[in-house]
Amino acid sequence: MTNPTNPTADAVHPLQTQVELEGDTLLINMGPQHPSTHGVLRIILTLKGEEVIKAEPVIGYLHRGFEKLAENLTYIQIVPLVDRMDYIANVTNELAFCLAIEKLMKVEVPRRAAYLRVLTSELQRIASHLVWLGTYGLDLGGALGGGTTLFMYCFREREIILDLFEELTGARMMYNFNQIGGVRYQPPAGFGLRVREVLKKLDKAISEYQDMLEDNYVFKVRTKDIGILTPQLAKSAGAEGPVLRGSGVKFDLRKNQPYSGYEEFKFDIPTGQKGDCLDRAKVRIAEMKESLKIVYQAIEGLPEGAISSRPSVRVAAAVKTPEGEVYSRIESPRGELGVYLVSDGSAKPYRLKWRAPSFSNLSLLPQLVAGHKVADIMAVLGSLDPVFGEVDR
Amino acid sequence: MTKQELAAKIKEKFGYDGKVGDEVELLVKREDYRPLAEFLKAEGLDYYCFATATDRKEKIVLTTRIENLEKQIAVHLSCEVEPGGKVRSLADLYAGADWMEREVFDLFGIQFDGHPDLKRILMPEDYQGYPLRKEFPLDQPYQPYR
């Protein structure tokens, strides 16, 4: 019977999901406002009791049309915009974009600028992994020291890194620190001293968390043998970063295809064996320790000199790239962050593809959670560490 | 195997001259796109990096990057498609092609033949038009929000 006051009320909206009951399976909706989805992710779940039969992620809630927008902006205007892609690791986005343009324009970067880029990237990696560790503790419902304890610890440590960034760039996030041809700011007097202090604090803190993690029975039960990712599937899905290395594939762009002077630094690439959530977590914790080593070497060996090789220009439209296409990539905290740039010789990109690691990693979720319990979805999702600014672009 | 050897093999088997730079760049006919991907997978290029497209006004160029991480060989496999045209999907060869091809379909309107679940991924399901085409205006609200 139609509703007399609102005749359209009975019409099925095209976006309305049809709930189907087949035997004893149940179709339910999770998100997009779920507290553990780290942003806005909707998952359509088919459940049989507590067991997940099928999971279908729905993304796009944070889509801002970055790639279209970039086609209408000059290269210099895009740099602050890419800060907003992966908003937990801002400086690595700028670096990826600037490296792509420098590769196309064949611009050399001064050695001091390259070192500062390494220094900021690695500090950013630690800050980003700390956010992951804190929120992962929350996701697992207090598996690490109860409730919000680890979350607060990690944000306390992240804050001292953000203080360093504030001192260097004037901003806590969205730095706009890299520019085409180098970096924007010289480190202030006494910066190296304060970096060393922070490194000492972080080293102690990260070791503590490592002990908390590796001796914690609840954490191990929640993550061991959950969401096992085989190296074959990881490669065929284009997974990367800690997700790929957790499955035992020793591939890190900082070592395999060094950029920005990474070949001068000594560090190891931690890998897992099994590819479960525990391995991915261990890889990230170990990576933080390796990053500390790199930051220390960068601040010890920081060369003197200029920080930018690009002559200053009066208008942004004066920066033009030669015609052609280029693919340039870096190892962001989440994995291989690639920039595919097609230029027609003007001051604006003809096409800019942002190859986001979170997008590829998240696409593995249906395969990883199938057969596990509902509560394991968040353990798996957290171990993939997606950032939705980057997934949806 | 090196990039040059791979390019020579492709030349021998398919007749395409790949441009060897940082990657092997190939522009192939549409019917050779899928057989070449199968060939590359058999040659050990098991890592699916991304798929994207570039609107060249009358043609849309679809580009897929496939690589081998250990040997550091990457191939940019491209083919030209007319707007709204069909290409054979790689989703059964590479797991990553599932979402990447959905994204290309969503933003460029290229159809993928044999894709398990081809629907919009970033834009809303009821959205009309393909935003990354050059004809799509940025300065006016688009259907159905006009």
Written account of the structure:
The complex is a heterodimer of chains A (393) and B (146). Chain A is an alpha+beta fold and 393 residues long. Chain A has one domain: Cytochrome-c3 Hydrogenase, chain B, CATH 1.10.645. In chain A, the strands form 3 sheets. Chain A has a 3-stranded antiparallel β-sheet with strand order 1-2-3. Chain A has a 3-stranded antiparallel β-sheet with strand order 6-7-8. In chain A, strands 4-5 form a two-stranded antiparallel sheet. In chain A, a hairpin with a 7-residue loop joins strand 7 and strand 8. The longest helix of chain A is centred in the first third of the chain and has 29 residues. The radius of gyration of chain A is 22 Å and the shape is globular. The two termini of chain A are 44 Å apart. The N terminus of chain A is likely disordered. Chain B has 3 helices and 7 strands; from the N terminus they run αββαββββαβ. Chain B has one domain: 2-Layer Sandwich (Beta Polymerase, domain 2). In chain B, the strands form 2 sheets. In chain B, strands 1-2-5-4-3 form a 5-stranded mixed β-sheet. In chain B, strands 6-7 form a two-stranded parallel ribbon. Chain B is an alpha/beta fold and 146 residues long. Chains A and B meet through helix 1, helix 8, strand 7 and strand 8 of A and strand 3 and helix 3 of B.
Low-confidence runs of chain B (pLDDT<50, min 5 residues)? none
| Integer-rounded radius of gyration of chain A | 22 Å
What is the rounded distance between the termini of chain B? 55 Å
Query: How many domains comprise the coordinates of chain B?
Result: 1
The largest contact between protein chains, plus residue counts on each side, is: A-B, 37 and 35 residues
The CATH homologous superfamily of chain B is termed: NADH:ubiquinone oxidoreductase Nqo5 subunit
Major β-sheet profile of chain A: 3 strands, antiparallel
CATH class descriptor of chain A:
Mainly Alpha
